[in-house]
Amino acid sequence: MDVLRVILIFLSIFAIFPSNIALSGNGKASQEEIVPVVLWHGMGDSCCFPFSLGSIKKLIEEEVPGISVISLKIGKSLIADYESGFFVHPDKQVKEVCEFISNEPQFDHGYNAIGFSQGGQFLRALAQRCPQPRMKNLISLGGQHQGIFGLPNCPSLSRKTCEYFRKLLNYAAYEKYDSVWVQNLLVQATYWHDPLNEDTYRVGSSFLADINNEREINQDYIQNLKFLERFVMVKFLNDTIVQPIESQWFGFYAPGSDQEVLPLRKTRLFKEDRLGLRSVPMDFLECEGNHLQFTKEWFIENIIPYLK
Predict the structure, then answer these.
(1) Quick one: angle between helices 118-129 and 219-226, nearest 10?
(2) Which InterPro entries does the UniProt record give (predicted)?
(3) Which of 12, 34, 46, 145 sits CB 3.0–4.6 Å from 82 for a disulfide?
């Protein structure tokens, strides 16, 4: 089976879970100065779909009067923005967003940021690579900060079938002669993290291994993360999309295992303080439900306070 077929199979079984927003709840904010908030959508979504980020934008504007909400559009059209979640390398996306916010006066006094699914790790890359203007609070909803190793909804497949597809994606992500163009073509391959072959992952990963300082230490990344006032990570307790779900809290499988999962503080990344996370104020939030499935009330209670 060739690499292109691997990619198509991977995409075909990747279920999309838009945010499930209830229609009740209200609140008011009062603050002399409120900084803008930037939203970055996940895979299979776009900046402005009314049933997903469009509704989030409206909700924030209702709860924080006077706030400016910018839902990022990658590319020049909604179609291009949608496709970016699959086919535009994160490095290119982060660079485009950095150029945008650096040239917008409304961000001069800083901004807050909310990332949905893979938008969470993309915004973290933005904080690390683009320190001006300053990101104040980074809120990651279901982001995969240590990557993924497993197929979406894998429990619905037999173990043998699941392992077969996992091996195929490993080939697509890391094969010596194909990894560059595959990762340039398929965004999800850039944060595929194989704990059974950690050395191969570190060498072959074109995005995640870099922003996690897993090859060499980039001191700018460390310093820029420390500028955050708060790094908020939300884990969805019944998530069938992100495997392991602990990646949403920066945890991951133990090296050499696809069964044992380590919390952040027991990982090599934290023990060696490769990103300076020991000095970053972090909040770990939980949400019942599947990937990005939350209610309006939950969002108001748990996320809105960081924007006021």
Answers:
(1) 100
(2) AB_hydrolase_fold, Palm_thioest
(3) 46
